Amino acid sequence: MGQQVLQGQLHTLEFEQIFQLSQGNLKEALVGELKALGYKPKSRKGYLYASGELPVMLIAHMDTVHRQLVQHICYTEDGTVMMSPEGIGGDDRAGVYMILRILQEAKCHVLFCEDEEIGGQGARKFERSSIRPVVNYLIELDRRGGNDAVFYGCNNREFIKFICSFGFGEARGSFSDISVVAPHLDVAAVNISAGYYNEHRQHEYVRLDQMEENIFRVREIVLTSTERFAYRGLYSSSLTGSFWGEEMTLWNMRFNSRKEPQPLMELSDNAHLMMGSHEMGGGRSHYIDRRGHVYLYLCELSAAVLIDGACAYSDTGEPLAFDSKLAQDIRVMEYDEAMELLRAG
To answer: In angstroms, rounded to a whole number, what is the distance separating the alpha carbons of residues 253 and 255?
Structure first.
């Protein structure tokens, strides 16, 4: 019944299959779907890429945080919401489906990445490849909700104005594959809502009506002729600058504008870090704040970055409690800032 909300069909894949297949099997199936659309896909370790005709690249990731494959899919009575007791995996199977629908009428370049949920591993493999498509901008479909546009470290105001002119609202986020791919290609990028909610949780659900609405809006965006939008970081690309006659490095300028250090408690090696149902490993070099949010400490920057969606647990499965007596004041940075500093050396 839920599929009645959707207004299009795929060539070789069924809608529900996209949510039910393992990452590896989905990758194989996408090769067939892209070929049916007239593409010549390149399947590489970590990603699947296909060159298009329009100067825009669409991006989604093929993995989910859920360990168990989706066996049962349920819909609300009006057919607008889908979910699964195994965790539906709308993050980011919804984005995969939306891209396939958009490609039927707009032959964009396309990149499907593996292992985004464990640090954007597929995007990093693409970054190290020789593939460098010439495009005007990137659109990723990997954001919760129905109306968000997240630009991360990209501060090209003309591009932001262009995307938001289609009704999207600028929002904040921590990381997605475009955080790696956009600076690599030196082109502006945005992550747009794919209609899923409660991501990284068993009770995740997908709003099919919002997916359909954003398929239409993104199709309108990519079919609008534009010039190339360059990637512009939140900070000057110059590594040095002058302030009141004193030479300052980019490092100094950023750290001088940083917020006051926050009290963070270091986790023991026995702590368990979870992203939804996926275990990320032990607690070494990780901290939590008063609200239980998890941070990764970067020795190179003497600062910590928030790991969005991560939680810390004890051996017994209980959420770890913050103890102010064990806390220390640590400087906290935005993820995109930290990555840009690390790339700058």
So the answer is: 6
**Mean pLDDT computed over every residue of the chain:** 87
Here the tokens at position 246 are 């004193």
Q: Choose which CATH entry (3.90.850.10, 3.40.630.10, 3.30.1360.10, 3.30.930.10) describes domain 2-222.
A: 3.40.630.10
Alpha-carbon span 179 to 168, nearest angstrom: 19
SS3 for 310-324 is: EEEECCCCCECCCCH
Residue 237 Ramachandran class (φ > 0 left, ψ -120 to 50 alpha, else beta): alpha
Give the Cα separation of 29 and 226 in Å (integer).
32
Looking at residue 271, its amino acid is: A
Distance of CA 83 to the CA centre of its chain: 21
Q: Looking at residue 230, what DSSP letter applies? A: B
d(CA 45, CA 39): 19
* pLDDT confidence band for 283 (50 / 70 / 90): low
Cα 233 → chain centroid: 18
Angle of helix 23-36 relative to helix 90-103, nearest 10 degrees?
Answer: 10
Residue 237 has pLDDT above 50, yes or no: no
Using one digit for the tens of pLDDT, what is the confidence trace for 67-79? 899 999 999 999 9
Domain regions of the chain by residue span: 2-222, 258-344
Torsion 281-282-287-293 (CA) sign: positive
State which H helix or E strand residue 280 sits in. Answer: strand 278-281
Nearest to 60 by CA among 85, 84, 33: 33
Global confidence as pTM: 0.71
Instruction: Give pLDDT tens digits for 178-188.
Output: 999 999 999 99
> How many whole angstroms separate alpha carbon 9 and alpha carbon 326?
56
CB 289 within 8 A of CB 319: no
> Which H/E stretch holds residue 220?
helix 208-222
Q: Quick: pLDDT tens for 70-116.
A: 999 999 999 999 999 999 999 999 999 999 999 999 999 999 999 99
CB proximity list for 302: less than 8 A, separation 6 or greater: 331
